[in-house]
Amino acid sequence: xxxxxxxxxxxxxxxxxxxxxxxxxxxxxxxxxxxxxxxxxxxxxxxxxxxxxxxxxxxxxxxxxxxxxxxxxxxxxxxxxxxxxxxxxxxxxxxxxxxxxxxxxxxxxxxxxxxxxxxxxxxxxxxxxxxxxxxxxxxxx
Length: 141
Prior knowledge:
Elements: H1 2-26, H2 28-36, H3 42-64, H4 69-91, H5 111-140
Keywords: Membrane, Transmembrane, Transmembrane helix
Transmembrane segments: 47-65, 77-95, 115-133
Protein name: MauE/DoxX family redox-associated membrane protein
């Protein structure tokens, strides 16, 4: 049962990362313009413009391969932590309201809905990693 749950979560992340990276790359000029309006320095923003979709694609690839699936889940967890932390800072007023450069339908979410969406995926990543680590411990006993 746990293995199936972990596989479903991995599949959901693969769909999420392919969709968000694909949306960004398909509408690259719009994505780049929205990213340029973020609160980061221009140099850091330039790095993020290319790094975010690249890392999302990397996550999807890692999740697809059985030997690197756990690494893909860990990287997905880190990405979701970063994105969720950024949203929390925006909601708390630390940053002024900034455009969402997520891509696709996710971009249309309000910040609170986006937070719930991210918390769901954050929880899913933790659950899948827990299942995998628990199985590894059991298999090594």
